[in-house]
Amino acid sequence: MIIWLNGAFGAGKTLAAREMLDLIPESTLYDPEVVGGCLRQLLPEKSLQEVTDYQELAVWRRLVVETAAALLHEVGGVLIAPMALLRQEYRDEIFGGLASRGIDVRHVLLDPGETILRERIAARDDHPGGPEATAQARAWALDRIADYADALPWLLADAYRLPTEGLTPRQTALRVTEAVGRGAGSCGIVQTPEPRAETVASGVLLFDDDGRVLLVDPTYKPGWEFPGGVVERGESPTRAGRREVAEELGLELTGGLDLLVVDWEPPRPPGYGGIRLLFDGGTVGEADIGRLLLPEAELRGWRFVTEDEAADLLPPVRLDRLRWALRAREQGCPLNLEGGHPPE
Questions:
Q1: 102: left (phi > 0), else alpha (psi -120 to 50), else beta?
Q2: Could you tell me which of 126, 239, 268, 325 has the fewest CB atoms within 10 Å of its CB?
Q3: Peptide bond into 270 cis (omega under 30)
């Protein structure tokens, strides 16, 4: 298990985590910031200059998951991770990666309130780099209070919130430990195993009466997606598409599925790539739209979007695939793609 202590910079996460080590048997402090520090030493300066925060580095997010899994394998017990995680897509990637490895995550938000938070940041004078570095750290933390405020809506929906105003680190640790002990903060993310070879996946495009396409928001990976999933052994691609739509949306497709695109997705470590199929599932009537059901452990939302709106939600490779699929639907002829584009 991992107890992830989230919150704004200066919320007291690390102090509470250290106190929890005395309260939870066989627990280990796991600070993902250490992974960031290692990357500062390992990556070329050019890579570091391209980001403002090491959390923006895809390699950091991958290593946070891999290091946690390796550490749990080595020491067992419980990892306590004090780390601000304020971008929901990063939460999805990291928590989804942990879930795929069968690691239970308890997500706890420490919230002292903005007034106390600002007071704590202003009072900090413990930076090892001296007064100038301390002033820079204070300014940096204060600048990110706005990021925390922006993240609060999804944090409150995802994590167990613990108000910590007036609490000492020990009292905070006691309350977190008690809450986790009764199951608070459990993230019931679907535990989809990471692929270990190339896969074949079927996606289904569903449309409303205005021609907008249905996208879903997975809890276990960043970005929006089409309904669908990996074709299981012995299963046909169209049957897989119908099964996934039924499992994800509670919608039984009775008509045929017309193929729109066949896309070969090249391997991009740590992903293996494979064949990605998109089918036309037709128009969903108003009555069926009103009955759509989502599995909470897998999807947090759905919406119908235009092609332009999809550009703000889909990762680039999926957006390219959608655009060509829509062209294929207009032309009535399926297209062959490689990496999201027709091969040259």
A1: left
A2: 126
A3: yes
Ramachandran area for residue 187 (φ above 0: left; ψ -120 to 50: alpha; else beta): beta
* CA 307 to chain CA centroid, nearest Å: 23
∠ CA 211-311-293, rounded to 5°: 60
Report the distance separating Cα 219 and Cα 19, nearest Å.
30
Residue 32 has pLDDT above 70, yes or no: yes
172, amino acid identity: T
35 neighbors 52 (Cβ within 8 angstroms): no
Q: Report DSSP letters for 41-93, one per residue.
A: HHS-HHHHHT-SSGGG-HHHHHHHHHHHHHHHHHH-SEEEEE-----HHHHHH
pLDDT digits (tens, 9 = 90+) for 251-266: 999 888 999 999 999 9
Closest alpha carbon to 120 in 137, 96, 104: 137
**Which of helix, strand or coil describes residue 190?**
coil
The C-alpha atoms of residue 276 and residue 335 are separated, in whole angstroms, by 12
Domains and their CATH numbers in the chain: 2-181 (3.40.50.300), 199-338 (3.90.79.10)
Pair of tokens at residue 178:
């008690």
> How far, CA to CA in Å, does 317 sit from each of 218, 268, 323?
16, 12, 10
Which residues on adjacent β-strands are paired with residue 274?
199, 265
Q: pLDDT tens digits, residue range 192-250? A: 777 889 999 999 999 999 999 999 999 998 999 999 999 999 999 999 999 999 999 99
Write the Ramachandran bin of 239: left for phi over 0, alpha for psi from -120 to 50, otherwise beta.
Answer: alpha
The contacts of residue 157 (CB under 8 Å, 6+ apart) are none
